[in-house]
Amino acid sequence: MFEEEKFVIKGLEGKRCLSGELKTPGAKNAVLKVLAAALLFKDEVNLANVPDIEDVSRMLELLEDLGVVVEKNSPGTYRLITTDINSSDISVEISKRLRASIVLTGPLLGRLGRAAFPHPGGCVIGKRPIDFTLEGFISLGASLTEETECYVITAPVDGLQGTEIFFKTQSVTSTENFMMAAVLARGKTILKNSALEPEVVSLGEFLNDCGARIEGLGTSTITIYGGELLSGQGKVYVTIPDRIAAGSFIVLAALTAEDVLVTDCRPDHLDALIYILRSMGVQLEVTDSSVRIRGRQPTFKAVDIKTHEYPGFPTDLQAPLAVLLTQSEGSSFIFETIFENRLQYLDSISRMGAEVKVIDAHRALLTGPSKLEGKEVASPDLRAGLAYVIAAIIASGESVVHNVYYIDRGYERLEESLQAIGVDIKRVQ
Ligand code: EPU
């Protein structure tokens, strides 16, 4: 079923006329973890550059349920008071809608010795198991019981015991979850084959700044020395720029810019995208914190992409980039290696006129350039939703993008940012 709100977008029919600035918001996948980490603090956590998005609101509700007092001081600025964490039951209702709720379990288990939670929900992008989370807690000494609607994990009376955990697949939220649990465990925990994503590093650096001892951030072996509750007094976590939002804006600009400047970003977190775009012939002017695209673009060269853990090409940019591939000369092969069924959105891109051959749940071939036509589409997830918005902007005629709820989960008032550079986009009830 379609959700209530939709975007109505009038396409540019391939014209390159967008101009102005797109400001990168704070990273959803960084701030959500720092919010969860508040449970590790004996006093307070202060945050800045927090994006005003649905997932942040849901995470704050979950924290309030657990006893955190949330104060919003000015837009994007929060103070969380964490002196009285009094519940270890994570709301079933909310976490079924928020995959990232799983990162509350590690800190909660460390702090209160118990965490009860359902299988988390989130975007519909195929099977998203939590077996690493369950196995990891057991190796930290906890016991697991399954009740009707939830899992209950309980630490030994004297707390979690540091251990060595090897991830058979690199996992962002699992690395973060155990890193946080281990901050309050006894002794040393070593995480092997850990995730290297900038969001993991940013979380670890903030925890270290507040009294944790975590070594090896940004490498595949992270060592955590367990200790006391952390203190956030006098510290502020400034959310790092959202590399996926910036990357999506850059792809949009590659297709449509007369002169677009993507600001407040970290191009050094986007090496894989920048490499791919340059190899397609896109001209980018890159500084430490911005990317500019201007002038007439020559035709784009087709390119093969394979998603990979950081610093490889991010799965979250696969769908937005695919829209650019529909406009490239020749055939481009997409190999999605991280998630199953993250190619379903291609059905609608094909209905819009792209030449798409889906080979299996992980692989597809796009042949371009194709003229896209406006259509009515429904976002299956956040990142595919963005791809539809980009496709609608370059298409001819009008498109309607349903399920804007998914887009709101990760983008703050996207339509306003896009209107400011000249996109004809309206949010309609
Ligand atoms: N996996 C397991 N078992 C587990 C956990 C993961 O098999 O217990 C598998 C997954 O099925 C997947 C692979 O491991 O095949 C990697 O998944 P990962 O755990 O890294 O994904 P995640 O932590 O659930 C985060 C982001 C995603 C992003 C991925 C990959 C958050 C809240 N989410 O998810 O972001 O796609 O890492 O980079 O940080 C999004 O923002 O739209 C989004 C989906």
TrEMBL record:
Pathway: Cell wall biogenesis; peptidoglycan biosynthesis. Its EC number is 2.5.1.7. The active site is at C123. It catalyses: phosphoenolpyruvate + UDP-N-acetyl-alpha-D-glucosamine = UDP-N-acetyl-3-O-(1-carboxyvinyl)-alpha-D-glucosamine + phosphate. One of its GO terms (molecular function) is UDP-N-acetylglucosamine 1-carboxyvinyltransferase activity. Phosphoenolpyruvate binds at K28, N29. GO terms for biological process: cell division; cell wall organization; peptidoglycan biosynthetic process; regulation of cell shape; UDP-N-acetylgalactosamine biosynthetic process. It is an enzyme of class 2 (transferase). UDP-N-acetyl-alpha-D-glucosamine binds at R99, D316, I338. It is found in: Cytoplasm. InterPro entries: Enolpyruvate_Tfrase_dom, Enolpyruvate_Tfrase_sf, MurA_subfamily, RNA3'P_cycl/enolpyr_Trfase_a/b, UDP_GlcNAc_COvinyl_MurA. GO terms for cellular component: cytoplasm. The modification 2-(S-cysteinyl)pyruvic acid O-phosphothioketal is found at C123. Keywords: Cell cycle, Cell division, Cell shape, Cell wall biogenesis/degradation, Cytoplasm, Peptidoglycan synthesis, Pyruvate, Transferase. It holds the Pfam family EPSP_synthase. Coiled coil: none annotated. Residues 14-418 form the Enolpyruvate transferase domain. Its main location: cytoplasm. PANTHER family: UDP-N-ACETYLGLUCOSAMINE 1-CARBOXYVINYLTRANSFERASE. Cell wall formation. Adds enolpyruvyl to UDP-N-acetylglucosamine. Belongs to the EPSP synthase family. MurA subfamily. This is UDP-N-acetylglucosamine 1-carboxyvinyltransferase. It comes from Candidatus Vogelbacteria bacterium RIFOXYD1_FULL_46_19. The gene is murA.
